[in-house]
Amino acid sequence: MPEIKKRKNSKFYQYDVMVDGVRYRGSCHTDDKSLVGKIASIKTLSDEDINKLTKNLITFVNANKNLTPADSSESKRINKSDNS
Prior knowledge:
By secondary structure, the protein is of the alpha+beta class. It folds into 2 domains: 44 residues, no CATH class; 40 residues, no CATH class. The protein contains 4 helices and 3 strands. The protein is globular, with a radius of gyration of 15 Å.
C-alpha cells in the first residue's frame, strides 16, 4: 500500500509508492490510497499504451502525468475532431 502523509498547513498529501519495483513519490489532493496507487500505475504506461486509451482516460492520464492536453499529440488530434 502507498504511504500517504500530509504536512501541517498543507492542502496536499505526499505519497510514496512502489509499482513494479519502481518508486514513485509526489503529491495529490486526496488521501485515498487506491487512487494514489492508480495514479502511480498510470505513470508507468508508455505513450503508445496511452494512445490506445479512450478520450476521457487520456485526459485523466495527462492530468496525472503533469501534462497539459496541448503537450500530447494524441489529445490534440482528439480535441480537433471533437470540434468538427
